[in-house]
Amino acid sequence: MSTPRKQVHLAAHFPGVNNTTVWTDPRSKSQIDFSSFRHLAETAERGRFDFFFLAEGLRLRELKGRIHDLDVVGRPESLTVLAGLAGVTERLGLAATVNATFNEPYEVARRLATLDHLSEGRAAWNVVTTSDAFTGENFRRGGFLDRADRYRRAAEFVRLSRELWDSWEPDALEAGDGRFVRPEAIGEVSFEGRHFTVSGGFTVPRSPQGRPVIIQAGDSDEGREFAAETADVIFSRHGTLEDGKAFYTDVKRRLAAYGRKPHELKIMPAATFALGDTEEEAAEAAAEIRRQQVGPQTAIAFLEQVWGRDISAYDPDGPLPDVDPDLSDGVSQGRVPIADRTAVAARWRALAEEKKLTIRELVIEVTGRQSFIGTPASVAARIDEFVQGDAADGFILVPHLTPGGLDDFVDRVVPLLQERGVFRAEYAGTTLRDHLALDSL
């Protein structure tokens, strides 16, 4: 008897305020208007995707003391947007990024449970952490949390949220329609941890999924361990088949320590794509997209983050700076800090020398995500290869256009995955847990 083929999981990422989106393309629309969110979500649902994914930004990034140009479009609050999308979609999962460092568990748990009710079981929470004081300046406590403690707080945050979600018995609503409540079915929560102390009753009945799906995006050792203990989905950035297999094996093996099975955690890397009628046409399209994403100004800005100094006098189409990085505080605020800028600069310099790359060409080379480039048939085959080869359970697709960048993929690639028998033709269930083939709670 042959082994059944693994099913591919797909999600849609609404492009964030960064150089992912090609702003100069006349088809590029607003990052704020609800119509943009609605278009991408409806396209993803038409393609029978698992979920729609929104990132978060709690402060506009700065470069050399100025707000970074690519941040000025703003960053709407995820749960508000997703509550609106719940009313115009029927099956698509709705994933919000909510920070576990600058929020409180009771309020986040209440908002997510509400979204799960409004959407009839389609809510998900991408748990992220922040340790930098720059972001913390927007909050009362500032940058109070040491970097080493951020996952401890996040783990406690998730544990407490789950206690709140589980505190109502499934049949607490006697009539099943929210009219009559059995008071004895509502439990009290008494939680005392290192970061949180809560004593009281939760205000929202148990939601259709039991609990929202948990997503985690960290790639450090602490992040992998946190995902193995708490997450249903991990959002990774591994771009090659070999790296994907190594990450997949490492994270899945950690699950046993928490009494979990491999299917209980889905690994879904971020991925971009470029399609063409021929392989050559797709390659040309991909190269042009990358040139538009990394213009001269953006190339210099990326290099300044590593070099830690003003290099605006250098030609982006010329060689790398002949000076070493400045290892003081640097020039960028609001981005994930680069742990060893000297080592990164050395790697970049070696790569530029080996391939004879200009500054702009180098940045294009080193900032690319996992990309599927080719005809619809070759892209479908490559996605299937990753999933069947245990390098991923699926992908979170990041289109380069807002909001229509997913249209071609849904129209041209999804039908081929369906023909291969590795992607659903219709939704089999109603909740996001159903779509992800996760165990019921």
Précis, in short:
Helices cover 37% and strands 14% of the residues. The strands form three sheets. The chain has a ten-stranded parallel beta sheet. A three-stranded antiparallel beta sheet has the order 4-3-13.
Report on the architecture of this protein.
The protein has 2 domains: 9-277 and 370-435, TIM Barrel; 295-366, no CATH class. It has 14 helices and 15 strands. It has helices at 34-46, 78-86, 105-118, 133-136, 150-166, 221-230, 241-254, 279-293, 296-307, 341-355, 359-366, 376-388, 407-419, 432-435; strands at residues 9-13, 51-54, 62-63, 66-67, 93-99, 123-128, 188-192, 197-201, 213-216, 233-234, 266-267, 270-275, 332-333, 370-374, 394-397. The strands form 3 sheets. It has a 10-stranded parallel beta sheet. Helix 2 runs parallel beside helix 3, helix 9 crosses helix 11 (359-366) and helix 12 crosses helix 13. The two termini are 31 Å apart.
Features:
monooxygenase; Luciferase-like_sf; 3-stranded antiparallel sheet; oxidoreductase activity, acting on paired donors, with incorporation or reduction of molecular oxygen; FMN; 441 residues; Diverse_substr_monoxygenases; TIM Barrel
Describe the secondary structure blueprint for this structure:
Elements: E1 9-13, H1 34-46, E2 51-54, E3 62-63, E4 66-67, H2 78-86, E5 93-99, H3 105-118, E6 123-128, H4 133-136, H5 150-166, E7 188-192, E8 197-201, E9 213-216, H6 221-230, E10 233-234, H7 241-254, E11 266-267, E12 270-275, H8 279-293, H9 296-307, E13 332-333, H10 341-355, H11 359-366, E14 370-374, H12 376-388, E15 394-397, H13 407-419, H14 432-435
Parallel strand pairs: 1-2, 1-15, 2-5, 5-6, 6-9, 9-10, 10-11, 12-14, 12-15
Antiparallel strand pairs: 3-4, 3-13, 7-8
Helix pairs in contact: 2-3, 3-5, 5-6, 6-7, 9-11, 12-13
